[in-house]
Amino acid sequence: MDSSPEPAVRADRLTKVYKTAAAVDGISFALPYGSITGLLGGNGAGKTTTIAMLMGLTTPTSGTARVLGADMPRERYRVLQRINFESPYVEMPMRLTVRQNLTVFGMLYGVAELRHRIGEIAAELELIDLLNRPTGKLSAGQKTRVSLAKALINAPDLLFLDEPTASLDPDTADWVRSRLERYRAERGVTMLIASHNMAEVERLCERVIFMKRGRIEDDDTPANLLQRYGRETLEEVFLDVARGREREAAQ
Amino acid sequence: MSAAVQMFSPHRVAAMVLRYWYLLRSSFARLIELIYWPAVQMLMWGFLQTYLAGQTSLYARAGGVLIGAVMLWDVLFRGQLGFSISFLEEMWSRNLGNLMISPLRPAEFVAALMVMSIIRLAIGMVPVSLLAIWFFGFNLWALGIALAAFFANLMVTGWAVGIFVSGLVLRNGLGAETFAWSIMFLFLPLTCVYYPVSVLPDWLQAIAWSLPPTYVFEIQALALNAVMFSLAVLAFLALLASARRNGTLMQTGE
Fold first, then answer.
1. A96 contacts in B (CB within 8 Å)?
2. What is the pLDDT of residues B138-169, one digit of tens each?
């Protein structure tokens, strides 16, 4: 019997089939508590479907997903209060002010001393001056910060990020990464980041899972991947994996 | 027990009601729209009643029935629309993914939509019913207890249809939005708002008597409404489960 402590996330032969196409094809991995892992892959590799199954949004066709000790999606309500998610593709209500949005989500997550928590998170993410402005009137960078504030409002133990810096200018993207690094250092949160930005993954993640056509193609630390593929950047490794040169290059 | 593992949390229902209340408060157009159509309907039928009152005694009696029927019909229609529009706001704002990964449970979401449907209806119908007294001397409130029973019955039917339509939109995306606006009009000829059930051919009468609002405009049938509401909730849960299987909860477009 395996006596090791249960990881924050464990996917075991996780599969999702839409009609006849396998979006995710029997993947298995475990994420220890406090780790930051990058989930990489081209469009249609199965990253978003994997995250959706881990959050209980999508029911797996077969296999299991255990998150913070709960079977997903069956036991999701036991742990959803300790999880959060940020993606530029899921937006916040535009007409509500930043404060109103944070109030609503804070209430949904049962955040104690909500007013204080909103002040705290607004200070952390430099949102104080924006609190009373409608979310829809903000710039893309400011909206990302609001989405991040929503994702951190419940001080989650597990954070799923789907391309957190997509469409941001380099300066704002760097700022977001710094905040994520700081948050992880302060709280020891577990993070799974789906991204196309290799520099981001190289900077933030201690482990990278490469997906291709629904399967895991490789899984290692960025340093080991660079060494094994004989490349200088993760972007080059990504291209090797995406173009099918991975095994030959690595062996 | 923490709020997250509670089977039903009034606090989360309040959060969602607050969300829709903030939205209504922020949008003058949304507030006006709540009053505009009920007022137009009431005025049109009120003036028709005034015209008919000057005709034969039969038409005069019919006129009184018409304005009452149209206002009760509006309770049914606006009740459903109030529910469905609040739900559609989540689709339009692409916020559904945020809600679905939060601890909000389907029953709490539905409860919040029901509360909003009452609030939206009250904002529209209370001023319009007062206008009807002022303009035409028609006092809907004079129905007293009967009005409360009619109102409850019509609201439950409106919610049942709203829940079913929301399930369809959840499962099929905004391509199914048109049902939210049109499905209730199927009830208009069948529930005999403006004429007695006996006008219908026999086979349509059977269908008419299976719809709760038909009884509201005749007598009441709470049991039938309970069945319809239960079926709608089951359909909603089945469609939600189907949306999870088909991975459509993150893709809320067309």
1. 19, 22-23, 26
2. 787 877 777 787 788 888 889 999 999 999 99
Structure ipTM: 0.88
Would the CB atoms of B95 and A134 count as touching at under 8 Å?
no
Q: pTM to 2 decimals? A: 0.87
CB within 8 Å: B101 and A80 = yes
With tokens 């949904």, the residue in question is A108
Q: In chain A, how long is the greatest CA-to-CA distance?
A: 57
The contacts of residue B230 (CB under 8 Å, 6+ apart) are: none
Domain boundaries, chain A: 9-242
Chain A residue numbers touching B107 (CB-CB < 8 A): none
Q: With 70 as the cut, is the pLDDT of residue A248 above it? A: no
**Domain spanning A9-242, CATH class:** alpha beta
How far, in whole angstroms, is CA B231 from its chain's centroid? 16
Residues in a beta bridge with A193? A38, A161
Which chain B residues are within 8 Å of A80, Cβ to Cβ? 4, 101-103
Backbone angles phi and psi of B244, in degrees to 5? -65, -40
